[in-house]
Amino acid sequence: MTGYSKSKVLSAVLLLPALLPAQNAVIDALVERTRAAFNVPGIAVAVVKDGKVVLEKGYGVRSIETKAPVTAHTLFRIASNTKAFTAAAMAILVDEGKVHWNDHVVDLLPGFQMYDSYVTREMTVADLFVHRSGLGLGEGDLMFFPPSDLTREEILHRLRFLKPATSFRSSYAYDNLLYLVAGSIIPAVTGKSWDDFVRERIFTPLGMSESVLNTAAFLKARDIATPHSELDGKPVVVEQENVDNNAPAGSIASCVHDLAKWMMVQLNRGEMDSGRRLFSEAQSRTMWRGLTIMPIPTYPKEAPKALDALKPNFSEYALGWHTEDYRGHKLVGHTGGLSGFVSRTFLVPDQKLGIVILTNAEHDGAHTALAWSIADEFLGAPKTDWIGAYRDLEKMEGQEIAKVLSASAGKRNANSKPSLPLASYAGTYRDQWYGDIIIREENGKLTIQFSHTKALAGSLEHWQYDTFVARWKERSMNADAYVTFNLKPDGQIDEVRMKAVSPATDFSFDFQDLLLRPVK
Hints:
Shape: globular
Number of helices: 14
CATH superfamily of the largest domain: DD-peptidase/beta-lactamase superfamily
Strand content: 15-25%
CATH class of the largest domain: Alpha Beta
Helix content: 25-40%
Largest sheet: 8 strands, antiparallel
Low-confidence stretches: 1-18
Structural class: alpha+beta
Mean pLDDT: 94
CATH topology of the largest domain: Beta-lactamase
Distance between the termini: 58 Å
Number of strands: 22
């Protein structure tokens, strides 16, 4: 605890006034219906309104194996909701005059280098936060996800080998790696690691004593959620992931008890108590000001009509936050996802309303539908069955994905043969930014292993011609990939390209960005 006895954040948590019984019952029912509709083992929810914490509660179980209950103190991985903490850490340094948002990154980190020398020279601190660098969607994420053995320093060095997909500042494409750069600025100007700075300058002042910044601390905690993915229509327990090598983008684990305090200080524009601030009101406004225009989401014409009401008039990415509008209100929020965990932070600043939802299953529809449902309760909006709408949308998307996969299978020439003997495909192949993958021939079959990523190990099954499919041993990843060998005129292998088989594969499996060449 911080000793801020008059803190608005802490006093609100200590008072913890209950919702009206009827409203409490409505939210309880919404959560349980969401869990059932999306087959989610556990959910935790916190709601803050008008300067008070009105709900913080756990529902369901931490694990389908242990059946231990979720509580308000159960730690979940919050993944990309970490990004707002990294932005707040930078805002604190801006308040102190140690950094400015328009400073050039290379002036703060002399070793920083992107593929394009112009981008290297012109990239500002603010650019690191707003997904407009020119990198493609999730480009380079395979350096840390699934968990790899590359260090933060190695990942930073390899940024220079990532070829841009678009020109600098021309369009939006979500990336994770530049948050590692942002986090690296902190030790450069303070002498403290990102981890220590966030703990000392954010967690401690806010009294977020249960939140942790790395995997080791998370696994030592007594009350932690277990991640679940879906396999053959049923939830299965998956391994806890270690993404500490890109911590500023997504390593924090927290609980709704702590995150209520985080939402309170955000809605209070950085104020913790009279005269005490985490960051200035000016920095609060800066962090919530959109800098990159995001595309307005669209739904297929077959999608539930209720979703039309969610179409915003604007959608922008700010500094660690996404902003859009809903029913005349500006929304500020973010989502986060790692294998087996998805979460959402949902703020309505003009209503002093904040909602955080943590789940231990990979269903975006669950936290999304629940957030809209709870928000409508407080905004007095017309009753809409968001849970049913998102459940139907998820089913429809599943059917569309099945059609795509069926169409791909239908175009396959199953009678084709590889151009070369299987043993000729074996060897080490190197991508400039990722490193090596190893293909072996054993007993008439091919296997594949990514050298830095233990989870990316599996078999290579012939698909057609010189294309194979990597079938990963860990089936819950849903990330099987086409592996195509391109040959030279003399029959030697020139290069290998990869691409996810399913459109449902998470974008961080950026196989398409690899250009693998044989290592002589």
